[in-house]
Amino acid sequence: MDYGIDPHTALALLEWQIELGATEAIGETPVNRYEAAPVAVPPVPAPAMALLPEVDPVLVARAAAAGAADRHGLRAALAAYKHCELKKGAKSLVFSDGNPKARVMVIGEAPGRDEDIQGKPFVGRAGQLLDRMFASIGLDRAAPDPARALYITNVLPWRPPQNRDPEPQEVAMMLPFLERHVALIDPQVLVLMGNHSCGALLGRKGITRLRGHWAQALGRPVLPMFHPAYLLRNPLAKREAWHDLLMLQARLRETA
Ligand code: URA
């Protein structure tokens, strides 16, 4: 049915109504839609349009993520999301890799060049180091056994241009999708790789102080660790990373 308004305006109107407190799309009196003639809603006049709030990308993301019933639906919701500029410059939507039944979910920052080309997280040099790190405590993204497996994703699913840091607004609009992703996978433990994933889920940065201490986010234990890209640049910090991997292994053994 064409009501003479474009989809963006329709969405803005809907969000506006939600902000005003509307919770159900029903009227006070029943309408027999088989008998009622279609009502043409006149276009919103220009002065009224100026009063409409801008579409809030975070609200749209929340609604889209909440509507995803499983991880395939969540991937489709992300693919359909139009408010993140990063999508325009990226080749692929990098959603996840590994075993969705894994006890451990690893959250990185954003895809780099190799991930963008292959459409999978952590497949470049940092990813190869990540695989070796987890292999040292018996965890493998390809393992069919959930007790030995990993599930891997990132805060941002699209590669930022020239691998620049994520903007706060980009993180804010991707956070509802990440939170839903964690809820759908329901891992026992989250491992946050580096500052940006700590910023997104713990609301804190400063990985040197955060790493090696269990924290809590989204109702589950969270272990911040040095990002493998940092370890490639600072090999001496692998000592701390090894300590953190052993902490993770001990926790998994305790709760096996
Ligand atoms: N760094 C990340 O944080 N994620 C990737 O997928 C690759 C590199």
UniProtKB/TrEMBL annotation:
Residues 95-246 form the Uracil-DNA glycosylase-like domain. This is Type-4 uracil-DNA glycosylase. Keywords: 4Fe-4S, DNA damage, DNA repair, Hydrolase, Iron, Iron-sulfur, Metal-binding. Belongs to the uracil-DNA glycosylase (UDG) superfamily. Type 4 (UDGa) family. It is an enzyme of class 3 (hydrolase). Its EC number is 3.2.2.27. PANTHER family: TYPE-4 URACIL-DNA GLYCOSYLASE (PTHR33693:SF1), TYPE-5 URACIL-DNA GLYCOSYLASE (PTHR33693). SUPFAM superfamilies: Uracil-DNA glycosylase-like. It comes from the Bacteria. One of its GO terms (biological process) is DNA repair. GO terms for molecular function: 4 iron, 4 sulfur cluster binding; metal ion binding; uracil DNA N-glycosylase activity. It catalyses: Hydrolyzes single-stranded DNA or mismatched double-stranded DNA and polynucleotides, releasing free uracil. The keyword Isomerase does not apply.
